[in-house]
Design a protein that fits this description.
204 residues; alpha+beta; four-stranded mixed beta sheet; 8 helices; 4 strands; globular
Length: 204
Amino acid sequence: MSALTLYYAPGTCAQAVRIALEEAQAPYHLVRVDFASGQQRSPDYLAVNPKGRVPALVTRQGTLTETLALLTYVAQRFPEARLAPGDAFGLARMQEFNGYLASTVHIAHAHRPRASRWADEPEAQAAMQRKVPANMTECFDLIERHYLGEQPWVMGAQYTVADGYLFTMAGWLKSDGVDMAQFPKVAAHHARMAQRPAVQRALA
């Protein structure tokens, strides 16, 4: 089986894909993209991912981008790892959750470090940044109440790629000015995740 190549940057949602690859015990190479020097906008990297973002996963069939797609690919490429539900409803429910993280939570967070994507005026950027703690609190309140139950994982008893995705985004709360402790289920999930060997390898 040919190895995969994951392009990543520390502190980004590429971490969720790396966790999934470790959970699947997949053969892969890591290539770090240096955001500080603007490497994501270099011609070499834009040839890999024209969006100039991470993650990007190079496979033998071609390159994939977007965290949601990469997580789905890893789960289906390595089915023996059981990183996604096997039934149609369960799979759709997992994708519903991952889609919420990608389309709503990630955007709410990104208004703090990357406000310049949405506005040029400093006062407009500052206004968006001030709203980030409230928006992230609202997002994680929904996750706490609607998605996490008494079972250990997002999908209940089965660990899936959604767990690494949630772990990654919950790790952004502190920098966004939100205390994770106000969400006991999220905090307990985060602590459980930190104990998993695959997560520890991914964070190393």
